[in-house]
Amino acid sequence: MSLTLVACSNKPPDVRDYVAKIATDRAAKDAEFQKEPDPIPENRKAELLPLAYFDIDPEYSTPASLRLAQDETVLQMPTSTGGQRQMRRVGTLEFSLKGQPLKLTAFVEVGAPNLDRLFVPFADLTSGTETYPGGRYIDLDRTATGIYLIDFNRAYTPYCYYNASYDCPYPPAENRLKVPVRAGERLRK
Fold first, then answer.
1. What is the 3-state secondary structure (H, E, C) of the chain?
2. Could you tell me which of 38, 83, 56, 34 has the C-alpha nearest to residue 182?
3. Among 97, 100, 99, 73, which Cα is nearest to 87's?
4. What does the pLDDT read at residue 13?
5. From CA 181, how far away is CA 54, in angstroms rounded?
């Protein structure tokens, strides 16, 4: 699959600006988590903050095309507390990562008041060794074009890792990538 995004400028994006923006966003998240009592409880802040991340790699930010689901079936997604979360399949994001064609299903929670955000839970070959065993998440704002930018540098650990009171859905089998994704949040070494 070949997918090209066209910008309004003939100037190529500056990788340094991209890296600086991701680094700034990470620092702001750490500061927010340090300041607020949630999602990281006070007794775990020293252990978990600052959050651990893979190095920022622009190759892990890739365009994707959303192929809409024909019937938007509902999936009962198991959660970290042993429950089930009803998630509606919106469609399949098709993309290429480091030259390999891949797919991830995008979901919206059944009954969600806002359908403008897509939830993309995933696991990969780093899950359980370098990253949280229960997978990681990416959130995407809906677009009218069906073209998205999946930025794995923004992949985050579910809050249930920090705080057992959170009820986090586990990625379904269809979102378990057979490649390592060394981008975004990781476990401490």
1. CCCCCCCCCCCCCCHHHHHHHHHHHHHHHHHHHHHCCCCCCHHHHHHHCCCCECCCCHHHEEEEEEEECCCCCEEEEEECCCCEEEEEEEEEEEEEECCEEEEEEEEEECCCCCCCEEEEEEECCCECCCECCCCEEEEEECCCCCEEEEEHHHCECCHHHCCCCCCCECCCHHHECCCCCCCCECCCC
2. 56
3. 73
4. 63
5. 10
Structurally, the chain folds into a number of domains equal to: 1
Residues of the chain with pLDDT under 70: 1-13
Q: Is 42 a domain residue?
A: yes
With respect to residue 92, please indicate whether it lies within any of the assigned structural domains. yes
Domain with 128, as residue range(s), is 15-175
117 within some domain: yes
CB 137 within 8 A of CB 150: no
On whether residue 35 sits in a domain, the answer given is yes
* Rounded-to-integer distance, Cα 64 and Cα 82, Å: 32
pLDDT of residue 189: 80
